[in-house]
Amino acid sequence: MTQDDKKRDVQEQQTEADDTGYQQKHRPSREFGSRADYLHNELSIMSPKRWALNLPFKDYRIEPEDMIPALAATIGKIVMVAAVVGAFAGPLNLSDAFVVENTRFEMLIAVLFVIGFSGMFNPTANLAGTHGPMIPLIPLIVTAGGHPLSLGLLVGLFGLILGISRGGSKLMALTSDGVRGGLLIYLGAIGLLSQIGSLTDWANASGMGYVAFVVILVTIVMYALLARLEMRWLSIPLGSGIAFLIAFALGAPFEFVTEPGFPTLSPAYWWGADTGWKIGLPGFSEFLSTAPFAILAVAMWSPDVMGQRVFQEINYPRKADKVLMRVDDTMGVAAVRQAVGSALGGGNLSSSWGTYIIPAAIAKRPIPGGAILTGIMCVIAALWGYPMDLAVWPPVLNVALMVGVFMPLLEAGMQMTRDIRSSQSAGIVVFGSAFVNPVFGWSVAMLLDNLGLIGDKERGRRLHYMDRWVLPGITFVILLVIMAAVGMLPGIPAFIPH
After folding, report:
1. What's the domain range around 419?
2. Does pLDDT of 3 surpass 80?
3. Cα(428)–Cα(434) distance, rounded to whole angstroms?
4. Contact at 8 Å (CB) between 295 and 288?
5. What are the Basic and acidic residues biased-composition ranges (predicted)?
6. Interval 108-155: pLDDT, tens
7. C-alpha span between 346 and 333 (Å, rounded)
């Protein structure tokens, strides 16, 4: 356990002894000079209880600003879950109707964990979202003999072990600001370019290339104005709405096709031999071939969660340490959500919910209030059906991810790499990530940085030998072997059976 975690545990014990602390310290917004001052005060006075009941208006408030991350999270959830289920459905020859049905089912499963865990019982655990970086690997997993259920159960098991052992927070403590900043810069830049390319390709395929140009140009101007006015927390709903209106006005094709309905809830249906996934239950060979991918998925959690927490640290006031998300609790909740969701029949791969926590940090809001609203919106979207069509329409989807996730990540990374030493470490992260992937870039840069070969050399000398080279070295070697096993290292063929 780190010193910061010990201090926070003491603070939580004091808070639990005085449940009325937040109510006594709360002051109405009219008593503050600005809305920003009120929101900063709310973050500073909150003392959420860990693994105990936290209630709205007793332990925290639900404010209008909570609508922004909730809306962004709902849009992101529909898109990402549909992408994961669709990636499985392609190699398994399943229909688009199956993808929509399973996505709706996953939206309802998410509600239980969003409201129950992040909204009430552990408001310092971020919402359990979707593991986007694993999407390109899913066809390889299926080809290697993997199974959605075996993958989900193993991810849940390995993630729970990492969360209980506090391995996530330890890895975070070993990662310097330069390495974190480089990771954010890479993820932000690559994601931004990917979304621009995706929107352009869609517009060109429709014979309307000018639609993408106009939408992106207006988005740039809008984002600049919101940054100037310090209102970037409006970027996702405002950007998505403007993108929809412009694209539709310019003649881009759009129609609602998903009708209201209720998904099948029976696990027996989803894991039947002739129903649902139509592949039955996995055997030992499916678990064996899936294990390397499950380990890799959990290994990717640390840099992902790390970057999201850093984003909170940058946007929250200094006294708001009690509401910063706990890395290990977030991983634990994601692991449990993964295991339960997979057992019930869902195809989602869990991770920390980036399209929620990043807009929430920009809006200066803690986790629980928006979590309640996110759960409500997910239920509405799943049962109503029509919002799912709107959320996955390329102009809405791509713009939401550009301004709500990737641009903020890029900006946060640049803020963390302002001096020469941190920029050296950041450069190695970007280099390694471009060479292999972000997991490789992060792990190799963390090892070199802690050894003092790059970045702040004095920091390396101050570290204990376990933190300086043993743990970073073990982490790098384990990840290197896993990536080599599944064929992710350039020029090295995979050595697990496909």
Report:
1. 63-485
2. no
3. 10
4. no
5. 1-11
6. 998 888 888 899 999 999 999 998 778 877 887 888 788 999 999 999
7. 16
- Sign of the four-CA dihedral 319, 8, 157, 110: negative
Residues 6+ apart with CB under 8 A from 196: 216, 398, 402
Chain centroid to CA 137: how far? 17
* CA distance linking residue 366 with residue 373, whole number of Å: 13
CA 354/CA 325 separation, integer angstroms: 12
Q: Which two tokens stand for residue 294?
A: 């499950």
- Residue 13, in any domain of the structure: no
* Residue 142, in any domain of the structure: yes
> For the chain, how big is the Rg over CA atoms in Å?
22
Contact 369, 82 (CB under 8 A): no
The DSSP code sequence of 11-70 is: HHHHHHT-TTHHHHH---GGGSSSHHHHHHHHHHH--PPTTS---BTTTB---GGGHHHH
Tokens of 246: 């412009």
Average the pLDDT over 220-244 and give the result.
Answer: 89
**Is 50 domain-assigned?**
no
CA distance 371 to 348: 19
Contact between 129 and 350 under an 8 Å Cβ cutoff? The reply is yes
Largest CA distance in the chain: 66
- Residue 381: inside a domain, yes or no? yes
Q: Which DSSP string do the residues of 86-97 spell out, in sequence order?
A: HHHHTTTT--HH
Q: Report the domain count for the chain.
A: 1
CA-CA distance, 75 to 355, in Å (whole number)? Answer: 8
Residue with tokens 């910063």: 324
